[in-house]
Specification:
heterotrimer; A: alpha+beta; Aldehyde Oxidoreductase, domain 4; 6-stranded mixed sheet; B: alpha+beta; Ubiquitin-like (UB roll); DNA polymerase, domain 1; 5-stranded mixed sheet; 6 helices; 34% helix
Chain lengths: 715, 187, 330
């Protein structure tokens, strides 16, 4: 037995220096196995059958013919599937989306609703049988369009209240020297992680086991236990590697269907969504219709601010895309009103997607601020600096650090903003008109209670166990560095195991809260372990294990406005003859707390900015009102940015220290996307003189604007 | 004529022969993943629209999701599992690892196989859609960042790691020219 | 995907014999379109005849100075071929503008010509589509058609042909060669694709069971000074929303000869013969180029959401021809 001292002489700090990913070698050699790739003996394959009508009832499912096909083992539908319980509160106290309770009734609430699961010996057999399954419907009229005059529009609370307000808006607008009143829209957008949702379920020694691709093993375990009325301890969910999530990988129909089939067939069953199925089963970002009204005094100080957002939800679940939320953090005004409203439609339930609310909301708000700067004759950065609030505009709480001005100073210097000719349409390079634009970003820095266990081994190494998920964020590596520093050892002595619900409850990889929450728990465990080891006792063979729980510490945080901030810059080139828009360069400067691993952090900021670019120029799911589904529901029809769309873009950060925060880490998963679409749209205005208030900024829209301009007498 | 819907085939993968019965519907991608437990090749869309399933067929990059396994007989198939030399990573793999040319890792094997193909195609003098003058008299295009971006555009990365991917391909293209080329560049 | 028989052909006669006149048999080349359509259920062949190993993989010069391109030459090899790049640069550019490097290495010249439309209603078997199920209707006309046809369409179908390669081939008067059990034949590309009319499901004039064996490009000195420009909704790996292949011969500021074809505007590559007539003999100025485009686009019948294509093609024509004229003047 050995006595291990965690360190009185601490090695150089690991946090803050670049480390390649722990699992990097597995990822570049193909050795890393994702959920659909873990082998199981006697595996059966399930294939989901989705409704081809947008509303109605199932009249008949002709299973008999399909059951006679080669290899087919079962057809699960609302007549044959086990019953599940949906009367519970899940993640963050939310009611479950009834969409996940598959095969419970004959009603069809949207196109692409799961009506059956065909299970067969091979995936080819399951697919052919699923495609051959005849389902007859009694069709009812449906409505899927986001009409701003819809009679059922209503305010809806999300994580935050639906409506906030103070001051007399009309009076302040009337008294303003400059007013902007503009409407903006953003389309339906889909997450499309590269790895389709996949789950394999089996019963093993009386426990339900799910090998899954998700953003939180604790989350999925809890939902499955509630749905199937199981003791949470009898459900185990594992997800070693996750091929992207972006908000879409929580609990969804395929996991529930897999569990049902594994239960009925008493063998492992795998269900993988096809890319096409993901467009109705994986969630999406609601389209939004937003109106922003700003009124400013002669110096550009806001007297009035109103931001109203309308989004859609399904008829079975209420989810709100809170696009009006950014104004509650970014800008104060004497009259300040925000509202998030929804209309229920015959569509799948929308859900969280990278920077919910902030991504579409910042497009409208930060575009409107640019319009206000133009009308006030102020530099867009100067306008924003003049409107820096002293306290939370709605909450009245103090800001726990607000380093937005510093982001702008650093960003403007590096981007070369000084000396910019504010007039639009002045720069040209061959067939391209050039312009630059900027916008602000912010994202809530929250934390969720987590538990972690930390074991000291006799050989001087340590094992961290936490039900974290690495969806590409570099979480596994970040936790290793945080643990190493907390233990005052080098990272090679720390093993980190994640993605297993048996490690105890932990925060999801979502809301930019994962790494902050997990690091907190790991640090707390390490502190306790160091205290234990400092007593000098020998370490037994099984090691010394401590366990932390951050619930109390998080609850004890003093209330404050805690956010990360960023300043986004973009330069675009626009060909007015063809409508093509190319981003030439982008820069994002962020104040996002302590950066754990600069290598992976930079990558993640850049990834967020690429999402913003993709949102600005490409992404749009077109829902056909006549049939109620997405046209071209695949990666050729739904465009995400390709490599050729992305120029040399840069992301960097400034010192951002909050002395009142015990962990000092803020999330960086979402801030990168916020503001980018506005920065690009503002740059397109600067290049062409045309405001684009509807995303994406497609060639046809640019062409239509250019054609309209030529028709103007002053053009 | 007798109709059969399956065949016993022999696939030459990473220099090894594998004989297996396949349903004619089975794609090379599914044969690798579901029959041969070679899961390094990824299924992102199954429709040729993302590039995650890229492998090398007779040395040229191709999407394995649109390649029927039965039609891949007589071809030399190289997958991500076959590009390293033992424990020594291929220069493209090493560059992706060192420069963080990925995030979730799901598109990565396809990106790496594609990059290996890109470097070969460039070495053979192939132009691309962004090559200013495609006429042979203009000479082979330099492998600039713009050329790499265009040539790598058949591999979507939803995490948006494109900046690091381009850096990784550029670095690997430099080293792939061999030690002599590297020294020359450094001199 | 339903089950199917698979046969590999080793020579052209064998391939043609294997297919015979069977309606439910398809030739398999690179598979980049056919296998995808089989997965989505649009194509449901009972048998595939694999022709990838046929000896049709060469690009050869003809004695007259043209090129004979074999049907199984991959798009990648075609675009890389020095004689294609030297004599028909717009063809190389068009091929390089299509799909991705991976797909170009698989896709064949013959298969590229026979590509089906990427209309989102055609590829979704749960929707009506006159091209897929004759008489079932065309939801694109009242639905999403922002990337549909403005020329030569009908009330039965407004789909576009997705090929970039075929646009350049069309500009250069390519001839398609084929073989049938009853002998071989040739079809000039201008006659290869059938008008839409009320039979959008009938796409080509190939006889039943015919195997495309190759494409012949006539000697065409003007093609040495040619260009393909493609506009799409992202920078790469996307189908065109408008494209133009053009060749220009300018002497003393006057257009002596011109070739022009449009992509993504019709059910076929659209040879702009009306524009060519305006161009020939006229001064090589942007005004002439615009007048030529207008002459061609006078026949355009845009729908509610694709009228931008008229502007796009007009601007694209002026831009490409202006570039070619400026280069000629240097």
């Amino acid at each position: 037995m050995t006595t291990v001292v965690t360190g009185t002489t601490a090695p150089p700090r690991s946090v803050g220096t670049a480390h390649t990913r722990i699992e990097g070698r597995d990822k570049v050699t193909g050795a890393a196995r994702y959920a659909g790739e873990v082998p199981f003996a006697d595996l059966a394959h399930g294939w989901l059958v989705l409704s081809t009508v947008a509303r109605g009832r199932i009249r008949a499912i002709e299973s008999e013919a399909v059951l006679a096909m080669p290899g087919v083992l079962a057809v699960l539908d609302h007549r044959t599937a086990p019953r599940v319980n949906t009367d519970y509160s899940g993640l963050m106290g939310m009611r479950p989306d009834p969409t996940i309770a598959v095969f419970q009734h004959d009603r069809v609430p949207h196109l692409g609703w799961p009506v059956a699961l065909v299970v067969a010996e091979t995936s080819e057999q399951a697919r052919e049988a699923a495609e051959a399954l005849v389902v007859r419907y009694e069709e009812a009229p449906h409505h899927t369009g986001l009409d701003t005059d819809h009679p059922d529009a209503h305010a809806l609370d999300g994580v935050m209240p639906g409506v906030t307000g103070k001051g007399d808006l009309e009076a302040e607008l009337a008294a303003s020297a400059t007013v902007v009143d503009a409407e903006y829209t953003t389309p339906e957008e889909h997450h499309n992680p590269m790895e389709p949702h996949a789950a394999t379920a089996r019963w093993e020694d009386g426990r339900l086991e799910l090998v899954d691709s998700n953003q939180g093993a604790t989350w999925v375990t809890g939902e499955l236990a509630s749905l199937f009325s199981l003791d949470p301890g009898s459900v185990r969910v594992r997800s070693e590697h996750v091929g992207g999530g972006f908000g879409s990988k929580g609990i969804r129909a395929h996991q529930v269907a897999a569990v049902m089939a594994a239960t009925l067939l008493r063998r492992p069953v795998r269900v993988v969504m096809t890319r096409r199925q993901m467009f109705s089963l994986a969630g999406y970002r609601s389209p939004t219709a937003q109106r922003v009204r700003l009124g400013a005094d002669a110096r550009g100080r806001l007297r009035a601010l109103e931001h109203n957002s309308l989004s859609v939800t399904s008829t079975v679940h209420e989810y709100v895309e809170p696009a009006a939320d950014p104004a509650r953090v970014m800008y104060d005004a004497d009259a300040h009103h925000t509202a998030n409203r929804v209309i229920p439609l015959d569509v799948p339930s929308p859900t969280f997607m990278r920077a919910p609310g902030e991504a579409p909301g910042s497009f409208a708000l930060e575009s409107a601020m640019d319009e206000l700067a133009e009308r006030c004759g102020l530099d867009p950065i100067e306008l924003r600096l003049r409107n820096e609030p002293d306290q939370g505009p709605v909450s009245g709480l103090p800001f726990a650090g607000r380093n937005l001005p510093a982001c702008y100073r650093e960003g403007a210097r590096r981007f070369g903003w000084a000396g910019r000719d504010p007039r639009p349409g002045r720069r040209r390079d061959g067939r391209w008109l050039l312009g630059t634009g900027t916008a602000s970003a912010s994202f809530f820095a929250g934390a969720g209670p987590s538990t972690a266990t930390l074991t000291a081994h006799p050989d001087g190494t340590f094992t961290v166990r936490i039900a974290a998920a690495d969806i590409g964020t570099g979480a596994r590596t970040a936790i290793t560095l945080v643990a190493a520093d907390a233990l005052r050892v080098t990272p090679d002595r720390v093993r980190v195991r994640i993605g297993d619900s048996d490690f105890g409850p932990a925060m999801i990889a979502g809301g930019s809260m994962g790494t902050r929450s997990w690091s907190w728990a790991v640090t707390a465990a390490a502190d306790e372990l160091r205290d234990r080891l400092a007593l000098g006792s020998d370490i037994p063979a099984e090691g010394i294990t401590v366990r932390s729980d951050t619930a109390a510490a998080i609850g004890a945080l003093t209330p404050a406005e805690r956010h990360s901030y960023g300043a986004q810059f973009a330069e675009v080139a626009v060909d007015p003859a063809t409508g093509e828009v190319r981003v030439r360069r982008m820069l994002g400067i962020f104040a996002a707390g302590r950066i754990i691993n600069p290598l992976t952090a930079r990558n993640q900021f850049l990834g967020g900015m690429v999402w913003g670019l993709s949102m600005a120029l490409h992404e749009e799911a077109v829902r056909d009102r006549a049939f109620g589904g997405v046209v071209g529901a695949d990666l050729a029809g739904y465009h995400v940015a390709t490599n050729a769309d992305v120029p040399r873009i840069e992301a960097d950060w400034i010192e951002d220290h909050d002395p009142g925060d015990p962990v000092g880490i803020k999330g960086i998963g979402e801030i990168g996307i916020v503001g980018v679409a506005a920065a690009i749209a503002n740059a397109v205005w600067h290049a062409t003189g045309t405001r684009h208030r509807h995303l994406p900024i497609r060639p046809d829209r640019v062409l239509a604007a250019a054609t309209a301009d030529r028709g103007r007498p002053d053009a | 004529m007798a109709v059969s819907t399956s065949s016993v085939i022999t696939l030459n993968i990473n220099g090894e022969k594998h004989t297996l019965p396949v349903d004619h519907r089975t794609t090379l991608l599914d044969a690798l993943r579901e029959r041969l437990d070679m899961t390094g090749t990824k299924k992102g869309c199954d429709q040729g629209q993302c590039g995650a399933c890229t492998v090398l067929l007779d040395g040229r990059r191709a999407v394995s999701c649109l390649q029927l396994a039965v039609a891949a007989e007589n071809r030399e198939i190289t997958t991500i599992e076959g590009v390293a030399e033992g424990d020594r990573l291929h220069p493209v793999q090493q560059a992706f690892l060192d420069l963080d040319g990925y995030q979730c890792g799901y598109c990565t094997p396809g990106q790496i196989c594609s990059a290996i193909g890109v470097i070969e195609e460039h070495a053979a003098g192939w132009p691309s859609a962004v090559t200013g003058d495609v006429r042979p008299e203009a000479g082979p295009p330099e492998l600039t960042a713009e050329e790499i971006r265009e040539r790598m555009s058949g591999n979507l990365c939803r995490c948006g790691a494109y900046v690091a991917i381009v850096d990784a391909v550029a670095r690997a293209a430099g080293t792939a020219a061999g030690p002599a080329g590297t020294e020359e560049a450094a001199a | 995907m339903r089950e199917f028989d698979y046969q590999r052909a080793h020579d052209v006669a064998g391939a043609v014999a294997l297919l015979g006149a069977a309606l439910d048999t398809r030739y398999l080349g690179g598979g980049t379109n056919l296998v995808d359509l089989m997965k989505t259920g649009v194509e449901r062949p009972a048998r595939l005849v694999d022709i990838r190993e046929l000896p049709l993989d060469l690009v050869e010069s003809t004695p007259e100075g043209g090129l004979r391109i074999g049907a199984t030459v991959t798009n990648g090899d075609l675009a890389a071929h020095p004689e294609v790049r030297r004599r028909y640069p717009a063809l190389a550019q068009a091929v390089l503008a299509g799909a991705s490097g991976q797909l170009r290495n698989m896709a064949t010249v013959g298969g590229n010509l026979l590509q089906r439309t990427r209309c989102g209603y055609f590829t979704d078997v749960t929707r009506p589509c006159n091209k897929r199920v004759p008489g079932s209707g065309c939801p694109a006309i009242a639905g999403d058609h922002h990337n549909h046809a403005i020329l030569g369409a009908s009330e039965h179908c407004v789909a576009t042909h997705p090929s970039d390669m075929a646009v350049a081939l069309s500009a250069f008067d390519a001839v398609v060669r084929y073989e049938t059990g009853a002998g071989g034949g040739e079809l000039p590309l201008r006659d290869f694709y059938l008008p839409v009319g009320d039979t959008p499901h009938l796409e080509t004039a190939l006889p039943r069971g015919a195997l495309i064996t190759g494409v012949t490009l006539p000697p065409l000195p003007i093609a040495g000074h040619s260009r393909y420009r493609k506009v799409r909704e992202r920078a790469s790996y996307a189908f065109a929303i408008g494209s133009a292949a053009a060749a220009l011969d300018v002497h003393d500021g006057v257009v002596r000869d011109a070739r022009l074809a449009f992509g993504a505007v019709a059910s076929r590559p659209w040879r702009a013969t009306a524009a060519e007539r305006v161009l020939t003999g006229a001064p090589a100025t942007p005004e002439t180029f615009a007048a030529a485009a207008d002459a061609e686009l006078a026949a355009a019948r845009p729908l509610e959401h694709n009228a931008y294509k008229v502007t796009l093609l007009r601007n694209l024509t002026v831009a490409v021809l202006t570039e070619l004229a400026e280069e000629a003047a240097r």
